[in-house]
Structure formats: C-alpha cells, structure tokens
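The instructor's notes for this session suggest beginning with a concrete chain rather than abstract definitions. Hand out the sequence below and ask the class to guess, before any prediction is shown, which regions might be ordered.
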Amino acid sequence: MSIAIEAFEHDAALYTVDDLPESNGKPMAETHKHVLQMVAALNALRWHFRDDPQMYFIGNMFVYFLDNLGTLRRVSPDIFAVRGISTEARRVYSVEKEGKAPDLVVEFTSRKTKKTDTIKKPKIYSWLGVKEYFMFDPLGDYLKPRLIGYELVGGQYARMHPEKSCLHSKVLGLDLVVDGDNLRFNDSRTGEWLLTHEEAQTARQLAEAQAQREAAARQAAEAELLRLREEIARLQKVTE
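After discussion, reveal the predicted structure:
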C-alpha cells in the first residue's frame, strides 16, 4: 500500500544517488492496521537476519531504476529484501548502483491500491527481476485469499500454490502465514515463529528474569554449601 510507479524528471545521464530525492513531499496514506503490520513484519525480518551482513531489509523507500527506454523511474515497495548487499543505511535504493533489483517484495494491499498492486507493480517488478512478490490484505478488503504470492519463472510471475495454508519464500527460507488478521513468518526448518518487536521484548524480559532467578538460586546454594562446610569444620574442632 504505497505510491504508484512514476516517472521522475531527471537526466538519466546524470543519474547519481546523492541527488535523488528520498521523498516526493506527499504523505504516505496508510491505515492504522497497515502501518502496524508493516512495522511488525519489517522488525521481525530484520531481527531474524540480524547476524547476516549481506541481507538488506527496508520499507517505504524509493527504488530508482532506468526502464527499457532509459527513463528514470521510481517505486516504493512496502517491504523489500535484497540478498548479497551490505546492511548499511541508504537514503534511496538505486538498482543501477547496487547492481541488482530487490529479490523480494511484500505489499500490504487494500481496495484503494488494488490496481497498482495487482497490475502495475507486478509488471515492473517482474521486468526488474524481483524473484518473489507477495501481497497481503490486512483488512480483507478484496484479496481472496488474503495472502497471494508469485515466483518469477522465465521472466514472468507464476502464482505460488499454498502448502499447508502457507506460502514458502525461497529468498527468505521462511514460510509466510496468515495468523488471524496478521502476516507472520515461520522457520519451517525449526518450526519457530519469527517474533514481533513486542514478542521479542517480552521474550528478552522473561529470559532476563529467568537468568536472575537462576543466579539467585546459585548464590543461595553456594551460601548454603559454605555454611555447611563451616559447620562441619566447627564440629571437627569440637571433637578433637
């Protein structure tokens, strides 16, 4: 659920990242649920891949590229992932500078963005070579089922077939699952769910509390062992 593909008045011969705008001055119109879903999904992915220095995730950032006529264009995916590039911060993403298009895109769609998400963006993403394209409808506005995925085959998108009510991403090595009204990610190798920010924070707090209890128990056990040793030594002196 983001801005449509648009031409950008800029001399392609002078196409440098430093002078490309990161905003068009227009507000990003998102519903409350769309914003929360995007943030939760992006945070979960970034946390899961935090130790991979060559896996880049970001959302609502301009992706600039030259079309087949040499016209400079831009699009802003809700979430995109790129394998094989550094995780350093970027103002914008340049396909030409990075040497590749995003590998995966997730759009949080709605009835308002239906035409863009189902017609315009698939065409440009497939032309760019985006390997996987997913659409999720948080409000259940129109998409049936609410999660649909496409895989690039021979330069065209082929619809993915659900496996056990989920779609598998080869790019991520994860399953995308609709959990109630939420889009979740699951590691099919371990069966573990990727945690949202709130879940990760709760898990850390529980782990810290457990560690504190274990430390206190060890200290109590060590103190009791010391007491017993001192008592034994005292008794030995008495009987000598």
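Then share the key points. The two ends are 86 Å apart (CA to CA). The chain has a mean pLDDT of 86.
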